[in-house]
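Work package 3, deliverable 3.1, input record:
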Amino acid sequence: MEVKETLARLRTEAPAKIAAVESIEELDELALQVVGRNSPIAAGRRSLGQIPPEERRDLGRAINDVAKELEAIIEARRAELASVEAAAALADDAVDITLPGRVPRRGTTHLVQQVMDEVVDIFVAMGYTVATGPEAETEFYNFTALNFPPAHPTRLESDTLYLEYGDDPEGVLLRTHTSPMQARYMEQHEPPVYLVVPGRVFRRDQVDATHSPVFHQIEGLAVDTDVTFGDLKGALDHFAREFLGTGIETKFIPHHFPFTEPSAEMHVYANGRWMELLGCGMVNPAVFEAVGYDPDAVTGFAFGMGADRLAMVRHGITDLRHLFDPDQRILEQYR
Amino acid sequence: MKFTLDWLGEFIDLPTTDPDEIAEALESLGHEVESWERINHRFDGVVIGRVLEVGAHPNADKVRVTKVDVGDEVLDIICGAWNFEAGAVVPVAKPGAVLQGDFEISQRKIRGITSNGMICSESELEVGEDEAGIMVLDADYPDASGRLGEDFATLLPENDVVFDVTITPNRPDCMSVYGLARELAAFYEIPLEPVGLEIDGGAASTSVTIEDTTACSRFVGREVTGLTVGPSPHRIRARLVAAGVRPINNVVDASNYAMIEFGHPTHAFDVDRLGKTVVVRRAADGETITTLDEVERALLPTDIVVADAERPVAIAGVMGGADTEVTDDTTGVFIEAAYWDPASTLLTSKRLGLRSEASARFERGMDPEFCRRAADRVAQILVETAGGTVAGVADEYPAPPDPVVIDLFMSEITRLLGIELDPAEARSLLERLGFLVEGSDPLVVTVPSRRPDVHRPADLIEEIARLHGFENIPARLRFGTGVGLGHRESRIRALRSVLVGAGYHEILGFSFIGSSDLDALQLADDDPARVGIRVANPLRDEEGVMRTTLLPGLLKAASANVAKRVEDVRLFEIGKVFLPGDGELPDQPDRLGFIAAGGSPARWDGPGRPSDVFDATGLWDRIAESMRLENVTVAATQRPPFHPGRAAEIRREGDVIGHVGEIHPSVAATHGLEGRVIAGELSLAPLIEERATWQFSPPSSYPPQVFDLAFEVESHVPAGAILAAIDDASEGLVEGRRVFDVYEGDPIPEGRKSIAVNLTVRAPDRTLSDDDVAPIRRAIVDAVETKTGATLRGVV
C-alpha cells in the first residue's frame, strides 16, 4: 500500500515542480528524481519482485501509467523551455538594424557615354549599323570630302585644332565632327547604308559653360534608292520621342551645312523653351560624288547631334564643365 | 548681324510689328534670331528740354548750374558738360528715370546745390558713342524745340527693336538689312522696295586698270567732291550703334551704313592723296603697306593690292592703307566697290591674320552686279551727310560672268523631299526669292548673281523646301538594313560593365596633355610614351600635346578628388592615345586605364583597408576572367611610372598588353597623392577581341578531397611559379587552389619563405579514395619541387 500512496503523492506533486523548473538543466535534475533512477517510480519497480504475483501486475501497470504521464509532462516542459531558450538566444543575437549595411560598391558609366549608348540603341532598333572612326583625321575627310569650300571659316586655325604631323601643316587635324565617317564608310561600303557613329570630336574653344575643346557627337547616315526629307523627319522625330519622351514637340528649321542640301536643325520644346537639338539634312550630291556614289541613283540623309548637349538638356545640367569634371561626387550621380 | 526694325521697314511693309512673329519668320527661313530687344524702354522718364540759363556753380568749377525748361516746369540741373550754352535743346532725365546699368536718376545735392535730374549724353542713352558732351538735339531734330516736355523717345522710330541674327556662311546675300528684307518679302508675299539707284556723273578723274581679272572681276570707283568731314547725323549714328558699329565720321559711317544696308563693303580713299592711275594687281615681292591699323605689312605675290603708280594703297578686300586714309581735312573721296575673289581674299586675310568685316564678306562671295550701286549708295549718303557732290565714276567690268542656269525636274523635287509639287507652285516659290523661271518640267531657273550658293538642283530644292515650309513635308518612319551594334561595341560595353561592377567610375578626360605632364611620370628615356604629337595651335599649354598614355589624366583626376577629400577614389577611362606611326595619320590605339587612391575607409563593422597593388592585379584578374581572356600571364616588371617592386606586366600570347600596379611614390607625390595609389593601363583591342563561344562543363557531383600543402622555397621564387607547377601536374583533377599563407621568419631560414596552398581535388566521375589522391598529391609535390626548388614542409 505504501508504494501506491507514494505514487499518488508523486502524481499530485510532481507536475507543479516540473512547471516551476526554469531551465533544461534543472529539468534534467528534477527528472531524475521524478522518473529517473532515484525516483519513487524506480523504487516502486524495484519493489515489484517482493510483492505477491497476483498484485504485481496491477501495481506494475499503475507504476507505468504514472511514469508515462509524468514523462510526457517533463517532455512538454522540455520543449517549452527549449523554445524559450532558443528565443532568448535569438534575442541576444539581435542587432541595430539601422546600422549601415555592407553595400557592394558599384561604379558608373559616364553620363555622356550612357547617352551615346542610348542614342545608338535607338537607331540600332531602327536598323542602323554602328561604326567608329579616327579622332586624328585628315583634312580631306574632315572637310574636302564633305564639300567644305576652301574658304570655309571652320577650317581656320582659330576654329580647328591641327596636329604637327606629316608634311602638310594643315593635313592632319583633330576631327571637328563625326561626319568624316560618312565619307570613310561610304567609300568602303556599297549602298544601302544605315549608319550611326558615336565619337569624340574637337574644336578650338575655350572651356566655358557651353564650350569645350573636347566633346561628343553621334552621327547618322541613311543612304538608299529612295530616302527623302520625309524619312529624315520621321527618323529624328522617332528618336526625339524615344530619347526625351513621347510627348516631346519638335520642329525643323532651315540651316546650312556644306555636306547636306537642304539642311535643317531640329529644335525641341523642353524646359519651357525651344532649343536646338541637332543638325541634319539631305546628303549633298557633291558628297556622293566625292565617295564614288551616283547622286542620280541614291539619296540620303545625315544628322549629327551633341551627346554632351543631349545629356545637359535631359538632366538639367547648365554648365558643360560639370561633364568633364572627374569629381567622384558628380560621377556617383550617373547611376 | 544686328539691325533695327525701323531700318528694315524702309524696304518692306511688314504685316506685323510683333518682334516674336518676325523672329519666327526669319527662323523658318533659316536665319536664326539670337535675340531681339526693344530700345525705347531705355528712355522712360527722359524728356525733351531747352536750356534757359547756364551759370557757374559757387562751390565747384568743373560743373555748371543750369535752368532747363521741360514744358510744365523749369528744373535746376547741375551739368558737367561744356559743349552747350543757353538755348540748346537737350534730352533730360528727370528724377525717377532709370538709365543703362540700372542707374536711377534722383534729386541730389552737389556741393550745396540741388540738381533735379540729368542732361544726357549719347552714350548715357545708348543711342551713340559720344561721351564727350551732352547730346544737343537742335541740328538733328529741328522740330524738337517745339516739343518741350515730350518724351525723348518720340523723336526716335516708334517701338524700335534691335534684332541680332546669325547668317549662315552660305548666304552672303543675307548679310544686310536689304537681304533680310528680301527674304521676309518672299515669306510674307509682300512687295520689296527696289534698290533703284545708279547715278551718272561722267568719267572719274582717276583711271582704273585691272591686271588680275581672276582676283577682281569688277572694280568701281566713284568720286565725291566738295565734302566736309564731320560727325554723321544722329539718325545714322544711332543705327550704326544699334548694329554694333562705332560711328567715326560721316565718310567712314557712310561706307559702314551702306554695307549694313545692302551688304557690299566699300572703301573710301582720300582722292587727293591717291594717285590718278589706280591698278589692281598682285603685290611684288618685298612690297609693304601700312594699313589703317598703323601696322606695316610685308606683301607677297599671292596678295592682291589696289595700287596707284607709286605704291599699294589697299590690300584687296581686306584693309585700306594709312597713306590714303580719309582725314578731317579730306574734301573729296574715291569710293571703291569691287568684286574680290573669295579664295584669294581668304588666302591673304589668313596669311596676315587680318580678318575684317569686309574680308569676311568677300570670302563668302559678294554680288559683282551690285558693285556700282554699292558705291553710288555711299555717294548718295555723303551728299546728304557731308555736303558732297557726286562726281565721276570708273567702272571696270571686263567680263561679266554668265548667269548660272539650272534645269530642275519636278521628279527631282519628289525624290529629295518626298512631296509632289505642282510646277506652278514650285515656280512661284522660286520667283518669290528672285529666281527667274521659265518652262514647267524642267523648270529652267536663272540664279541671281547674289547667290553663289546655288549651282545645282539640290540647291534650288532647298530654296523650295524652306519657303514651302519644312513643317509641310510629312514625316515617314523607315527602317534600315543595318546590322546593329556589332561585336566590338558589345564587347566594349561588357568591359565597361566589368569596371563599373568593380566599383570604378568612368571619366571622360581630355585627349591632350601639357608638355610637362609626361615629365611628371618620370618615364624611361626610351619609353615610346615620351614622344607626343604636338597640337599646332593649342589654346593653352595644357592642350599642347596629344596624350600618349591615359595615366596623366587619371592621376590628375584622382588628385582632384583627393584634394576635395573624396575617400576611396576609383576611376577608369576608355579612350584613344596618339602615337607617331607609319601612315598618313597617327596611330590611335584605344586604351583602358584605371586608378584608385585611398581604399575603403574604416566603418562601424571593421577597420578600413587601403588600396594596394593586389587591388590592381585583382582587378586585372576580374577583367581577364570576365572577358574570357586566355593565355595571359602576369609577371613582375620595373617600369615607370610604377613602383619598381609593385607592378606587373601583362602578356597575352607573349605580347605585352599592359601594366598594372602601384604608382611610384615619388610620381604620386608629384601629383599631390599620398599613400599607395594603384593604376593600370591596358590595350583595349586584345581585351575586346572576338572570343570563341564558350562551352558548358557540368560540375562533378562526387565529394572532393581537400588538403593543404606548405612549401618552403627561396624568397625570390614567385608564388605564380608554384601555382603554375600545381596546375601543370593537376591532370584536370584540381578543382581549386588557394594560397592561404605566405610566411617569412623563424623557423624558416633566412632567404627562404613558406607558401601554403589549400587544394580541392575532385574527379568528374567517381569518389576519390585516399589511395586515389596519394599519387596526385605526390605528382603535385614533385612538380613544385622540381620546377621551383621548393621543399615540402608537410601538411599544415
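The mean pLDDT of chain B is 92.
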